[in-house]
Amino acid sequence: MVMRRTAVAAAVAMLTLLATWGGARSATAAVAATAPKAAGATGAAAACAVLAPGASAVAERAVAAACEQIGVWYTWGGGHGPQPGPTYGQVDPSDPDSAHDPERLGFDCSGLVRYAYARAAGGDPLTGNAYHQFHSPQVNQRFTAAQGTAPLLPGDLLAWGSGGSVHHIAIYLGAGKMVEARESGTRITVSDVRMGGDYAGAVRIAPAAAPGTFSTWGTDVWTHKEPSTTSPRVHRFPGPTTVRVECQKHAETVTAEGYTNDAWSYLPDYGAWITNIYIKGAAWLDGVRTCP
Predict the structure, then answer these.
(1) Which of 83, 75, 82, 71 lies closest to 102 in space, CA to CA?
(2) What's the per-residue H, E or C state across the chain?
(3) Residue 38 clears pLDDT 60, i.e. is over it
(4) Annotated catalytic sites, by residue?
(5) pLDDT tens digits, 137-180
(6) Does pTM top 0.70 for this prediction?
(7) Cβ distance 272 to 235 under 8 Å?
(8) pLDDT (0 to 100) of residue 45
(9) What digits encode the pLDDT tens for the residues 91-140?
């Protein structure tokens, strides 16, 4: 009888152990099942970057600017305010998912492209909707749908549409990936390039310099609060940088890098002055007005 009770107790212990082990396996399986989803969500933001070589500096900056918006809402009509940047959207009568777009600050597909290239190139080179951007005078190369992604570089614009219309546009990252503001109810994300359906091809952008846009040169160049090297420093350019010049004036004479010049330019985006010695161009910049 004792042996029988002992055997029963052992059997119960074994069943308990198996149940516990099975529960642990179930918990592990549950974690394993959810972990890839969490990693995927985090990985989407991490994967938004220039994923192939060969793009221009402007195109790389456009990719970086778009990637900064990962997770921002898609809003129908978003990004088409007076200046590039996120705006509240509108209700698209053909899409019930857009009902909350007027409450969401974000971009539609072309609003994101507009913002990215404005940040990258200065000015506002890609206004309008997806159709206007695909046919912009800033385009300097076109690729057909049949060419696929092989000839594309990061920063190229991918378009979808048919019969001469374009209803969607996205920015290529390289490696078959793109960043896009896709549709109402979603957020800006990285996606695989969709080559099927009504994929219409791609274009490469080479924006002309906006009026008053110049490039600096040299390394570790400082701007100043006033047009004088003795005034407080404001911002350091570690290397060549595209800047917008509002006006210029004659002020303190500066000698540097083998040049002497008394012309200074005001950079409104930095609220600061820079000696014209470090701006590429004539000693007195062509086409820039004199500051009052």
Answers:
(1) 75
(2) CHHHHHHHHHHHHHHHHHHHHHHHHHHHHHHHHHHHHHHHHHHHHHCCCCCCCCCCHHHHHHHHHHHCCCCCEECCCCCCCCCCCCEECCCCCCCHHHHHHHHCEEECHHHHHHHHHHHHHCCCCCCCCHHHHHCCCCEEEEECHHHCCCCCCCCCEEEECCCCCCCEEEEEEECCEEEECCCCCCECEEEECCCCCCEEEEEEECCCCCCCEEEECCCCEEEECCCCCCCCEEEEECCCCEEECCEEEEEEEEEECCEEEEEEEEECCCCEEEEHHHECCCCCCCCCCECC
(3) no
(4) 109, 168, 180
(5) 889 999 999 999 999 999 999 999 987 899 999 999 999 999 99
(6) no
(7) yes
(8) 53
(9) 999 999 999 999 999 999 999 999 999 999 888 889 999 999 999 988 99
Burial 120-152 (b: 16+ CB within 10 A, else e): bbbbebbeebbbebbebeebeeebebeeebeeb
pLDDT the model gives residue 208: 66
Structure tokens at 163: 């019969």
Q: Tokens 């080179």 — which residue?
A: 125
What whole-number distance in Å separates Cα of residue 59 and Cα of residue 68?
14
Token representation of residue 226: 């006033």
